# Entry
Amino acid sequence: MSMIRDLRAVVRPSLRKSPTVYSNYDATRDHSASSAVVDCAVYRDGRRMKECTTPHEAMVRVRESGGFAWIGLHEPTEAEFAGIAAEFGLHPLAVEDAVHAHQRPKLERYDDTLFTVFKTIHYVEHTELTATSQIVETGEVMCFTGRDFVITVRHGGKGSLRTLRHRLQDDPELLAKGPSAVLHSIADHVVDGYIAVASAVQDDIDEVEIDVFSAPAKGSSRGADAGRIYQLKREVLEFKRAVAPLLRPMQQLSERPMRLIDPDIQKYFRDVADHLARVHEQVVGFDELLNSILQANLAQATVAQNEDMRKITSWAAIIAVPTMICGVYGMNFDHMPETHWRYGYPTVLVGIVVVCLTIHRLLKRNGWL
# Structure
């Protein structure tokens, strides 16, 4: 095992500094800020220093005066991220994940950098839940955490970290803990979003449950709710894909000692992990509850179909009586005394009505009509 670790120690730095990966970047010159950079700042003793125009300038200040740099990006391209990756020595595999997105929540360590992926969830407001309603909208936040820098890469139109940054700047004591404090705040911010979405989704499930088990409106069909339930299950599954894979990374951050995580901050990760576990239990419960609601809906639809078939059968039995009698007298035989009787026609009509009413009463008494 020691030989493998020594080999990795030799190979990884060579991958990070390979000129074939970022050959167009010159760390010695001042680059113009990319359009993907939404914020760039240096923090020292929990205070935000003078504005930085480029990530390169931010790192120069950090190396000269201490503190750490926090650089925020939104959906950078490979060309826009190449210079930043070379400046901070980010691993090419992590850079590729950050640029192309669509990653599972995870925590990976590349030498002296932690790479964390979070799935953000945003609840989509809607006036009425339909079979095509979008319930949740997902995005991604990738976080590179080093000893003296934090780089956040955001994908998706929702989940801005601007409010989080301002809230941290109002708490210099916490921000003075360094990059690990920023990582914890991002994790806490994402999980708090999960809790809010879980509450909203619970309201949608309650609405569907009430509709399924309440008396149907006149002219409506029980099976009409199946489309809404399937759509809700699909959205809950998307929610589950964001929450479940994040359990292990949060457990690692809260329990495993890491050089890049301040021991005081690690205690706070336990609270985040606890909230995440609670949300995960809720989401699993949502999935099971929707399965039960769907089965109940399908059972009700089956019962309704059986009731309809019984009604159809009952009316067919009633109609069979006049059909049979009329069929008998429609054969036009000569030797049929009733056809020559003066009261034969009204007697047959009265007999048909009496028999039909008797059958109708019996069927209704037995619940078929």
User: Anything to note?
Assistant: The chain has a mean pLDDT of 83. Residues 322 and 328 are 10 Å apart (CA to CA). The chain is about 55% helix and 15% strand.
